[in-house]
Amino acid sequence: MIEIKNLHATVDGKEILKGIDLTINPGEVHAIMGPNGSGKSTLSYVLAGRDGYEITEGSVSFFGKDLLEMEPEERAAAGLFLAFQYPVEIPGVANTTFLKSALNAIRKQRGEPELDAMQFLKLVREKTKALSMTDEMLKRAVNVGFSGGEKKRNETLQMAVLQPKFAILDETDSGLDIDALKIVAEGVNALRSPERSMLVITHYQRLLDYIVPDHVHVLAFGKIQRSGGKELALELEKNGYAEFGVNEAA
Fold first, then answer.
1. 60, 103, 130, 201: which could join 67 in a potential S-S bond, CB 3.0 to 4.6 Å?
2. DSSP notation for 171-218
């Protein structure tokens, strides 16, 4: 599905990614863990096509196409989705308007018929019910006035509506209490399928108690230093990142 080879990227002239190699097959859930400043969020932004990140070397193939040559909206239409660590607020744009426009834009690019208002409302209400979201949240401006947990549930709702083929979850557990974490994780797990892959970026093992990954990678100093199964997350929780030369107390 996605193959990253020797990916290097800079931000404001500083090299953050220093040679990422990663292959994710259909149906797989991979987790990337690492200390602050290791490049986790940079990797997610580079894959999503965010401005301000310069690719200096390497390649990313997405379903056989050059992802780095695609505009962000083309990546979304091709099935890539990024759930932000800090979801943006969009004053003046109702949640339903945003979701309907995003979904129909993707359907149009895929050559699928757009959903009318009634079809969309039926779909979005099915999805909100599973995430314990109210109709009132759908009427409000995107993320404006939402609590941290509501914003993350809203990100999960977007994913449930847009049905991406490859979803990147950038520290989705950030700012969530345990109840909100369980609701969000249940929503994410409901989207697992043999055709969909996920890249879960997190600091802590607790998220991986609820979204159990097939593979875990340690990212430090801009490179994947070690890969393993889900037991690697437990090992990191116990021992920290000291073996990778990271002093988190510094």
1. 60
2. STTTT--HHHHHHHHHHHHTT-BTTBEEEEEES-TTHHHHS--SEEEE
